[in-house]
Every structure is written in structure tokens, then in C-alpha cells.
Design goal:
It is a single chain. Helix 8 crosses helix 9 and helix 9 packs across helix 10. About 75% of the residues lie in helices and about 0% in strands. It has about 300 residues and is mainly α. It is built from 12 helices and no strands. The chain has 2 domains: about 90 residues, no CATH class; about 200 residues, no CATH class.
Length: about 300
């Protein structure tokens, strides 16, 4: 069934509508979650602001995790289904949910994520060393302060000692972002950009650029851009949203699990720096070659089908 108006709308109209619906869903969800937080956590409006100032208080962290989950749901999970219905009349078909993942491509997806680690970490180290021109020093200092605050909050979220805490972090950091962000950026925005530019590769890159910029983390922009490109090709080659979701989940879940097991089960802290050091440049080139081969193998599975 076709939506009576937006099915044939110009891609620019669809893109603007996507951002507007995502924004309004975010605002509405935020308001509702704040209102519900007051009786659930027994707090007043002013306590929400003070919660960010004391990250050592478990109650504050629980509140912030609750808000994080609700906001991610409103911003990423809900809008794609609304947009899918407006653009096609059937959200599940539009978002490519119907084709369930197959075992072999899913395993290749996992191998792709492992192979890209040296490249991602190399780009991360390179990105960390970038500096803005002197006349933008004020902007650069603001970005550093913002990222330090975000890093401090993330570390507070990840610092859990129980299985329940680990599972909650996996839900908040891996499951919801993997599904929600892929639905919005690959399932909706990338499709609109490919339709608009008439070029698959350009559409994938622009969507990945928006995806990385949306996180407002300048010093992690390049590695996230690469991941966005990889997720985009997984979506295009497979015709299913599940493979970029799996890849996104693996990427985020690895970070959560590594942080949880550091110092507990003998996991070395250097695992997240694999490929970041100059002596490991060989691993970067090996990772690139493996990525090319794995993507060819991944694509061939769906060509045969």
C-alpha cells in the first residue's frame, strides 16, 4: 500500500520530514520520560540537573541511564517506523526487516568487524591528533571539554560490577543504538540520499557522514565515519537491515564487554588500541585487504541468492 502523499515526495522533502519527525519524537519522549521519572525516582525537576554533577551516586546513574534509554528510543527507534509508513505504507517492508539474517553472512559480518579494528583504531589515533586552526581555538577547547564530559559519563555508565548492570549496559549501549541508529541512518536516511543522488556510493558516504557528525564527537569522527560506510555497504549488498544491526551491535557490545572484563578476567587494556600504534601499521594494511576480501565474499552470497 502506498502512502497517499509522501510515497512520491521529493527526496529533499523526505529528508527534512525525517529530521523533523525525529526531533519531535525526541522532544515528546524526553518530556514524557522526565514526567514519569519524578514519581519513579522520587525527584523534583531541579534534581535532574544536579544528577549530572554527582556521577558517584548510584541513584543518579540509574536516573541518567533511564533517561538515556528513553531518549534513544524516542530519537532512533520510533521515528523510522513512522517514516516507513509515511513513505511506503508498510514500515516492515520499507525498513527491510522481513529478510532475516542467514548464518554464513552473519559470520562474515562478525569477521568484517574484527578485521576493521586495526583500521578503526588507527583512524582514531590519527583523529585524536588533529588540531583546528588557531582562530578556531575556542571551538576546539569547547569540543575537548564536551568530549571529556561525555567520556566521563560513559565511564560512569560502564563501571558496573554485576551481571544485571552489564546486561543493562548492553541494552543501553549496544542493543538500542544498534537497532535504532541503523533503522534511522541506514533504513531511512541512506535510502533517501541514494534516491536523491542516484549514486549508491555517494548516498552511503553522505549518510555515514551525517551518522558520524550526529554524535557530536569531533575526535572520534573519522573512525565512526568508516563504521558508517561499512554498515551502509552491508545494508546495500544484503538488502536487509539485520546485517548492519548485527555489525553495529558487535562493535558496541565489544566495547562494553572489554570494559567490564578489564582487570577481572585478565583482558589486556591494550585490546582497544590494536592497530593504533606505529609498529602495527602492517595490521592496518592487512585489515584493509581482509575487509575487501570479506566484503566480496559477503556480496557474493546474496548475488547467488
Amino acid at each position: 500500500m502506498k502512502s497517499s502523499f509522501f510515497y512520491d515526495a521529493h527526496p529533499f522533502t523526505k529528508l527534512i520530514l525525517s529530521f523533523l519527525i525525529a526531533f519531535f519524537c525526541f522532544i515528546l519522549t524526553f518530556i514524557v520520560s522526565v514526567i514519569l521519572a519524578m514519581p519513579i525516582f522520587g525527584i523534583g525537576p531541579s534534581d535532574l540537573i544536579h544528577a549530572l554533577e554527582d556521577l558517584n551516586n548510584p541513584e543518579n546513574l540509574n536516573l541518567l541511564k533511564y533517561l538515556q534509554i528513553s531518549q534513544s528510543t524516542g530519537l532512533f527507534l520510533i521515528p523510522p517506523f513512522i517514516l516507513g509508513y509515511l513513505f511506503s505504507g508498510n514500515s516492515w517492508s520499507y525498513l527491510k526487516f522481513r529478510q532475516l539474517p542467514m548464518m554464513v553472512p552473519a559470520v562474515i559480518t562478525f569477521l568484517i568487524l574484527i578485521s576493521c579494528l586495526p583500521v578503526v583504531n588507527f583512524l582514531n589515533e590519527f583523529n585524536q591528533g588533529l588540531q583546528l586552526p588557531g582562530w578556531l581555538s575556542g571551538v576546539e577547547n569547547w569540543m575537548k571539554r564536551s568530549e571529556q564530559a561525555a567520556e566521563k559519563l560513559t565511564e560512569a555508565f560502564l563501571a558496573v560490577d554485576s551481571i544485571n548492570g552489564l546486561l543493562l549496559n548492553l541494552l543501553m549501549i549496544a542493543v538500542i543504538p544498534a537497532i535504532g541508529e541503523e533503522l534511522l541512518f541506514r533504513g531511512v536516511i541512506q535510502r533517501i540520499l541514494v534516491e536523491w543522488t542516484k549514486n549508491i556510493h555517494l548516498g552511503i558516504f553522505i549518510a555515514a557522514f551525517i551518522f558520524s557528525a550526529f554524535h557530536f564527537q569531533f575526535y572520534g569522527f573519522l573512525p565512526r565515519l568508516l563504521l558508517g560506510v561499512l554498515f551502509g555497504y552491508l545494508f546495500v549488498y544484503s538488502g536487509s537491515i539485520w546485517y548492519p544491526v548485527i555489525a553495529h551491535f558487535i562493535n558496541n557490545a565489544m566495547a562494553v564487554l572489554v570494559y567490564y572484563f578489564i582487570g577481572k578476567e585478565g583482558v589486556e587494556e591494550s585490546i582497544d588500541q590494536f592497530g593504533a600504534k606505529g609498529m602495527s601499521v602492517l595490521f592496518v594494511f592487512a585489515g584493509i585487504i581482509l575487509l575487501i576480501l570479506l566484503f566480496r565474499f559477503f556480496r557474493s552470497n546474496f548475488r547467488k541468492a
